[in-house]
Amino acid sequence: MTRRPAGAEGRHVSARGGTRTPLIAGNWKMNKTVAQAEEFIAGLLPRISARAELDVAICVPFTALQAMVDSARGSGVEVYAQTMHEELEGAFTGEVSAPMLTELDVHGVVLGHSERREHFGETDRALAAKVGAALEAGLHPILCVGETEEERERGETDRKLRHQVQEGLHLLDADQIARVTIAYEPIWAIGTGQVATAQQAQEAVAFVRALVGDKTPEAAEAVRVLYGGSVKPDNAAELLALPDCDGALVGGGSLDPEGFAGIVEAARGA
Ligand code: 13P
After folding, report:
1. CA of 82 to the centre of ligand 1 (A)
2. Distance, CA 1 to ligand 1 centroid (Å)?
3. pLDDT for 167 beyond 70
4. Which of 23, 27, 142, 192 to mutate to test the pocket of ligand 1 (most atoms within 8 A of CB)?
5. What are the E-state strand segments in the chain?
6. Quick check: 70 and 37 in contact, CB under 8 A?
7. Interatomic CA distance for residues 13 and 17, integer angstroms
8. How far is CA 198 from CA 148, 194, 243, 245, 268, in A?
9. d(CA 115, CA 252)
10. How confident is the model at residue 8 (pLDDT cuts 50, 70, 90)?
11. For residue 28, how many C-alpha atoms fall within 13 Å in the half-sphere facing its CB?
12. Which of 35, 29, 24, 104 is closest to 70 using CA atoms?
C-alpha cells in the first residue's frame, strides 16, 4: 500500500499563523486487550466528529494495532504504536520494526517516552536513529522529552530539554524535522494528577520550539509541540489554548472514551 509522507496532508493555516494541525493523542501504555480496545473505539467514535482542523490518535499496544486500524478506518482517528526498533529487521528478540508497523497501516509511533527511557534503557542515540527510521518509513514520530522533578528544582529543565531535543533530532535535515511532533512531558506530571501550570507548560513548549528554531527556523514554525502530563477534560482547554501548544499526549485520561472525547472537544474549542 502506498503511504503518504507523515503530516503532508491535513495541514491548514492555523489561528497561530503557522501550518500546524493540532493533535490529541491518547497513549494507552500497557492497557487494554483487543476486546477492551474494541469496546473503547465503539464508545469513542460516536462521541467525536472527524474534522480537518484537528488530528486525533490513539497509541495502542502492539497486540491491538491491527484491530484498531481496522475499527478506526475511515473515522479520522489515527492509530500509533508506542515504540519501535530503529533497524528494519534482524536479531532483536521482542522488537518491532517500522515496516512491520506500516504494513498494518499504522500512522505513527511514540518514541522516547520517559517510561521507556527509564525502564527499558532507551538512549538518545538510539532515539535519533528511531526518529529517522520512522520518517523514512512514512510513520509520524512523536518524540517525547521532559525533566524530572529534581531537575526542575535544580533549575536544569532547559539543559535537559536542550539535550534531548538536540540529540533526538541531530540526524535529521530541515524537511524531516518539520515532520516530527515533539511532546513535552514533565516526568513529575505523568500519572500524578499534578498538571503543569499554564505558565510552566507554555514556557517549556515555547523553549522546545526555540530549540528547533536554533537548528532550522522554518521547521520551528511547522513542528508540532504537544504537552503531556495529567491532561484531563477539565484542564485541557487552558493548556490547549497556549500559543505554542499544538495539542496533548494523554495517558490515564485517554483510557475511557467519554473522558478522551471530552479532551478532544476541549481541543476543538481552544
Ligand atoms: P498521564 O496523562 O496519565 O499523566 O500520562 C501522560 C503520559 O505519559 C502520556 O504519554
Report:
1. 12
2. 32
3. yes
4. 27
5. 23-27, 55-59, 77-81, 108-111, 140-145, 181-184, 224-228, 247-250
6. no
7. 6
8. 18, 12, 11, 10, 18
9. 14
10. very low
11. 25
12. 104
Residue 113 annotated as catalytic: yes
Residue in 250, 260, 263 to alter for ligand 1 test, most ligand atoms within 8 A of Cβ = 250
For residue 269, the model assigns a pLDDT of 80
| DSSP output for 107-156 | -EEEE--HHHHHHS---HHHHHHHHHHHHHHT-EEEEEE---HHHHHTT-
Q: Which three cell numbers stand for residue 254?
A: 485517554
What pLDDT digit, counting tens, does each position of 122-154 carry?
A: 999 999 999 999 999 999 999 999 999 999 999
User: Do residues 69 and 104 touch, judged by C-beta distance below 8 A?
Assistant: yes
User: 159: which 3 cell numbers?
Assistant: 539543559
The CATH number that domain 2-86+93-269 falls under is 3.20.20.70
Tens-digit pLDDT profile for residues 20-37: 999 999 999 999 999 999
Closest ligand 1 atom to the C-alpha of 228?
A: 6
- Model-level pTM greater than 0.85? yes
Q: Which residues line ligand 1 (CB under 6 A)?
A: 27, 113, 185, 190-191, 228-231, 249-253
User: Does residue 3 carry a pLDDT above 80?
Assistant: no
Question: Domain coordinates of the chain in residue numbers?
Answer: 2-86+93-269
Q: Mapping DSSP to helix (H, G, I), strand (E, B) and coil, where does residue 26 land?
A: strand
Is there a catalytic annotation at residue 140?
no
Closest CA to 75 of 50, 107, 57, 104: 50
Query: Which is the closest atom of ligand 1 to the Cα of 183?
Result: 10
Please give the mean pLDDT across all residues of the chain.
Answer: 92
Q: Is the pLDDT of residue 16 over 50?
A: no
User: Grid coordinates representing 15?
Assistant: 489561528
